[in-house]
Amino acid sequence: MDLPVTETLLLTLDKGVLHITLNRPDSRNSMSLQMVQELQGVFTWAAANAVRAVVLRGAGGHFCAGGDVRDMMTIRQKAVDDPRAYQSFNRVFGELLTQVTNAPLVVIAVVEGAALGGGFGLTCISDVAIARADAQFGMPETRLGIIPAQIAPFVVQRIGLTQARRLALLGLRINGVQAAQIGLVHEVCADAETLEAALQRTLADINQCAPDANRVTKALLLKVGHHPLDSLLDDAADAFAAAIQSAEGMEGGMAFIQKRPANWVN
After folding, report:
1. Which superfamily does 9-207 belong to?
2. Alpha helix segments (H runs only) across 49-175
3. Domain range summary for the chain, segments of one domain joined by +
């Protein structure tokens, strides 16, 4: 299985887990348009190739310090001839966040160093977030005279309106411990060694779960609050019936009775 060719990302595939490393360490992995487009392509590839989980992290001790200022300056030049250049440039990152949110696999963010602006947004759309205690999370946009346009809905969904207002309207930064307190991340680690151990535990837990069952469960969870309850429960019952009669459902039941690992456990 050939991995996509990328310039701003490092990719490795191991036992159904795709490790994506944002690889622009000189700019603390700031999000260029090229990086956004490469991430879109990689997540499309992952969804089409039965990848069970994606681990997203940054090179050089930082997760992602937000948008690339140099790209923004280039867009300023384009805006002279294209009045919607800024809108198009901004919107593509929201498309990425939506794509990753709905990806039919488990997304794990491993956060060290800076997770600002777009990096904050990437944390918000992960299924599991593990962070160093000294990581720095923030929404600095308003202090720069701009707004957190594309990440705002995902931030509110993740941590709630009250916390989102405080962080966005004051332009605050918080550390990993504080991020866990408001529900932004799930686990906080003191150093690189414990961070890696937490990641391996998370991957071991995912390995115990049936891939199709995880895919359907994630889709169901994402519908909550967006569909009428009765129709959602009807759809869930249909999905349950399909799951219990599927090859995974049959295998899971037999493995439980026979007290052995299911055949999807590596």
Report:
1. 2-enoyl-CoA Hydratase; Chain A, domain 1 (3.90.226.10)
2. 69-78, 85-101, 118-124, 152-159, 161-170
3. 9-207, 211-258
